[in-house]
Amino acid sequence: MIGAALAALARLISGASAHWAAPPTDARQRVYFSNHTSHLDFVVIWSALPPALRARTRPVAGADYWRRGALRRYLATRVFNAILIDRAGSASSPGEASRSIEKIAEGMGDDGSIIVFPEGTRSLDGEVRPFKSGLYHLCRKKPGLELVPVYLANMNRILPKGEVLPVPLLGRVVFGAPLRMQPDEEKAAFLARAREALLALRAG
Predict the structure, then answer these.
(1) Taking a C-beta distance cutoff of 8 angstroms, is the pair 15, 171 a contact?
(2) How far apart are CA 78 and CA 119, in angstroms?
(3) For residues 86 and 64, what is the distance between their CA atoms, to the nearest angstrom?
(4) Domain spanning 16-199: which superfamily?
């Protein structure tokens, strides 16, 4: 009940209309990967998913933000069922980064999907920065994942950094055609290909 109400509220606040290049027809494991400009981003993607897929899709989010305050903790853990990652630790050492990937893979289980932001942090100017390597390592750990690029338009203007109340503008959520990592694809080539698939949705 709370999740459905929050999904409807997120769609109302963001005015976000969802566009699908290939609407999902089954419940396979997916990674929805997106550009990142606002704290509303994962909420908007989550709310745009059909209810059956939303119920089995977990956002991957920064523990430093979502554990700050009782309300955020409640939403992250009890409503969104988010996988909370220590971003500072992941960025500081390969060992911590590896443990973060392990935690995400474990959180997905055998049939769960996730929402991730491969840039690793929010973009202040709306440009999509080069992807961090986490997406590559996750796909190596869980071969066969279906990767769905998701482009968010206008979210950095709807809830700019440092603001609490959203500005009423129309957003868009564009879900692209799915892709997969090739068996012997090198990290740099894979991350570049995934980023290009995301950038191609900007005009969609």
Answers:
(1) yes
(2) 26
(3) 7
(4) Glycerol-3-phosphate (1)-acyltransferase (3.40.1130.10)
